[in-house]
Amino acid sequence: MSFTIYVNNTPIEVQEGETLLPVLRRNGIKIPTVCYMHGFTPSGACRLCVVEVEGKRDLITSCTYPVEPEMEIKTNSMRVIKARKALVEMLLANHPDDCLYCERNGNCELQWLAEEMNIKERLFFSRKNSDKRDHSSPSVYRDPAKCILCNRCVRVCEEVQLVTAIEFISRGNKTTVNSAFDKGLNVSSCINCGQCIMVCPTGALVDISHIEKVQSVLDSSKKDAVALLSPAFITSVAEFFNLKAIDKPTNLLKTVLAKMGFKHIYHMGQAADLNIEMETEALLSALENNQTPIFSSCCPAWIKYAEEFQSQMLENISHVKSPQQIMGRIAKYHSESKQEQDIEKLYTVSFVPCVANKFESSREENTQKGISEVDAVISVREFMKMLRSHGININRLLYEKNDKGLEYVSPAGYQMGYSGGKAEAIAHHVNHKIFGKNAEPIKFSPPKNPGSKREVKVKIGEREIGFAWVSGIREAQEYFDLLKQEGRKDIHYIEVMACQGGCAGGGGQPIATYIDKNKQRKKTGQELEKNTTYDSPGKSEKLQKLLGALKGDKGIIEELHTQFRKRDVLK
Ligand code: SF4
Ligand code: SF4
């Protein structure tokens, strides 16, 4: 049932059961909040979203209050503004005044609130949080002093990722957010997904930065910096700068990285193609031997979750390395940039929208005799900083000649950047393997609700193969439980991505709490996909040649596979 409410004397049509905050936002009325997150049950904890309702004595929190017929609301009365200002002043009472040195300087919700409320001085003083900073994780850095206890990270970690690596400790003014037993995140159940960073309004949670170590390599003649560009990263940069396929974002990025000082630049799409080829073979072999389902292995946060919580599933996870590690391995040991005597001279840097890749690059399975396949991992956020520090203006470069492309790749790399894309690429490649070069591309119809679980059955030859994809660990776990409960055997390949929407919603993307961003990135990725040269890795002669050469040496193919292990962590 719909009815009318009056907001600042303007009539607004609403639906029964809605709460006020989304209604106000939908109608372009900005309401401050630090605890509310779209898609989560509102808690009203921060109280910043208060509004005045005619006839009510107290201000009400708009995130929790349901609309009522004929209600009259004031969103910006003096009373409301004063209340919100006092709340922000209290949030600032124990906050360190180090904005200049903060990772989130200029992109901090607390800073914006203080500015919007016209706060010019500290009115309240309270005990500073003296919990130690946590540098222990390879992906996430925590600075408890900057935490405003909004609860967003705790909820994402528990409700979306099912991990509960961080939680509220103590009560009252002693409350803090911490990992289990105040031990570092590195020994907690954290899966390094970085989703807590994406929702934190302040600099309390940020990524472990690799910028400085990359900068020092670029600055020295002792090492040759090698860039590994993931398609999902190219997509994010294209989306950020509103670049179209016609602007050739890959070529543009090649120019940018060369300007920064990278000696060799590789498109990680080649490694994605190799991953698809080998994982397709793993699926076909599992089908032959009745050992399905096979789970995808390209998301390092999902792998860590399985190692910690679902170790019985490990043998069904494809053992093919992720595109990042395949590309690092090839760039260091099997490419023209390899220098026979001195592999140590090569310094590989992957560019990805993920912070779990930082953890992945540090896994001992991805290191040989102390040499890492991937030496540093730069997220999209870090890349934006590097652009600024190198004084590079992407839009200006558009007018320069950027026609030197990278190796041609199939769409698979771009497809792997969003949930469902990899399953589609595998289905298409199975088809290609059975019907040969003339196989029609397999396209899954777009899901009604992107980011949610989906199943597709594809008739390939005589056989019906079931593909499924899930993103977000809670959704994945619920899906596994369902398959088990129902004893289903009709799903043969399951793509699992830890971040909702896949890498499009990765923990290394520019900070934005809107799910719509993921959809935009998916669209941009699909546009770039259309401009790849082949519709399947199987149709790329160059790739098949590379694969042929690699297959000629069993040892190399083994190098592109990995092992997983049960992990004991503090839970
Ligand atoms: S990185 Fe992921 S798993 Fe770790 S604390 Fe953050 S949300 Fe939880
Ligand atoms: S760490 Fe950030 S997201 Fe978590 S409670 Fe503190 S301010 Fe909120």
Record keyword descriptors for this entry:
Alpha-Beta Plaits; alpha/beta; 571 residues; binds iron/sulfur cluster; globular; four-stranded parallel β-sheet; five-stranded mixed β-sheet; Fe-only Hydrogenase (Larger Subunit), Chain L, domain 3; Ubiquitin-like (UB roll)
Describe what you observe in this structure.
It is a single chain. It contains 20 helices and 19 strands. Helix content is 35%, strand content 14%. Helix 7 packs across helix 18 (515-530). It starts with a strand and ends in a 12-residue tail after the last helix. Strands 2-1-5-3-4 form a five-stranded mixed beta sheet, sandwiched between helices. A four-stranded parallel beta sheet has the order 11-10-13-16, sandwiched between helices. Strands 12-19-18-17 form a four-stranded mixed beta sheet, sandwiched between helices. It has three domains: 2-91, Roll (Ubiquitin-like (UB roll)), CATH 3.10.20.740; 99-207, Alpha-Beta Plaits (2-Layer Sandwich); 221-381 and 389-559, Fe-only Hydrogenase (Larger Subunit), Chain L, domain 3 (3-Layer(aba) Sandwich). The mean pLDDT is 90. The structure holds iron/sulfur cluster (2 copies). One iron/sulfur cluster binds at residues 147-153, 177, 199-202, 204-205.
